[in-house]
Amino acid sequence: MIRNPLFASILLLLLMVHCQSESGGAARHGSDAASGRAVHQAAGSARQPLDARGGGENVQFTTADGVVITGTLYAAGEAAPTVLCLHQWRSDRTSFAALAAQLQQAGMTVLAIDMRGYGGSTKTAAGKSIRPDRKAQEDIRAALQFLKKHRAVDGGRIGIIGASYGSSNALIYAAGDAGIRALILLSPGLNYFNELPTEGPLRKYKGRPLLAVASSEDLRSMETVQVYQNIAPGILVKTYDGAGHGTDILKAGVGLEKEILAFLRKNL
After folding, report:
1. CA of residue 130 relative to chain centroid, distance
2. Quick check: 71 and 58 in contact, CB under 8 A?
3. Surface-to-core class of residue 148, CB atoms within 10 Å of its CB (0-12 exposed, 13-18 middle, 19+ buried)
4. Of all helices (H) and strands (E), which one includes residue 238?
5. How would residue 5 be classed by pLDDT, with cut points 50, 70 and 90?
6. CATH class of 57-267
């Protein structure tokens, strides 16, 4: 038994400091463990289970002529109806990010790619730098080959959304591939850059579902959708006022996203 009151007080004080130090360390350890779990979950969220519908995953594949294509895949469940998105000139796959997320939440798998020369698609498999090319048929072909091997994709229910030159490439490709069930063309052109004529491909598309979209001030695209209607009276046309060009129409608040979703639900 300790009889010295001063010594006893000092000992008690030392014991209290030691206990506080231990409990503070435990609290910090617990906080670190919790934050570690949060970091682990965030890191794992990039690869969501297919039915989680929780965002996109970066993917890459190589075209037949050796270009490495980068894309974002928004998987929405096994064997889901699927949409390939093709951006406009001087843009990239991020221009479709908001729409892709909405379609994913609606139960559709979406792949948005950077076409050759843009975004993450600027090199060959051998590491050689490449420039943008107005013709992107090999990019589309490689993207569809990738999709048809993926378990989130129903290979018999695939459509394409293209913007501006992306819409021309989409139509030209789909004219020769009867497996493309539906097309959505944002601000299409009759012959962008004098390299992408689309009237002939529209005739070859042979009556499959097609939604053509244009804004009134975009005179070239307005002319195009009118010509398209003369060639293929059964297509669906939507026009807006002051909504811009290509994927800008998606940002204009005109309700195009709802039109796209309804069209795809009906036709895929």
Report:
1. 22
2. yes
3. middle
4. strand 236-240
5. very low
6. alpha beta
pLDDT of 86 strictly over 80: yes
A 10 A CB-CB count for 195 gives 11
- Model's pTM, two decimal places? 0.81
User: Are the CB atoms for 46 and 55 separated by under 8 Å?
Assistant: yes
Percent over 90 (pLDDT), the chain? 79
The Cα–Cα gap between 68 and 60 comes to 7
Q: Is the dihedral of CA 67, 193, 178, 162 positive or negative?
A: positive
Where do we find the tokens 């975004």?
119
Other beta carbons within 10 angstroms of residue 177's beta carbon come to: 13
d(CA 25, CA 19): 10
Centre a 10 Å sphere on the Cβ of residue 262 and count the other Cβ atoms it contains.
11
Residue 208 has pLDDT above 80, yes or no: yes
User: What's the pLDDT at 232?
Assistant: 97
pLDDT, residue 54, reads: 60
Supply the DSSP symbol for 255: S
User: What is the domain partition of the chain in residue ranges?
Assistant: 1-44, 57-267
Tell me the DSSP string of 126-154.
TS-B----S--HHHHHHHHHHHHTSTTEE
Mean pLDDT of the chain: 85
25-71: per-residue pLDDT in tens?
333 333 333 222 222 222 222 333 443 346 899 999 999 999 999 99
101/105 Cα distance (integer angstroms)? 6
CA distance 31 to 27: 6
Burial of 132 (0-12, 13-18, 19+ CB in 10 A): middle
**What residues form DSSP beta bridges with 68?**
62
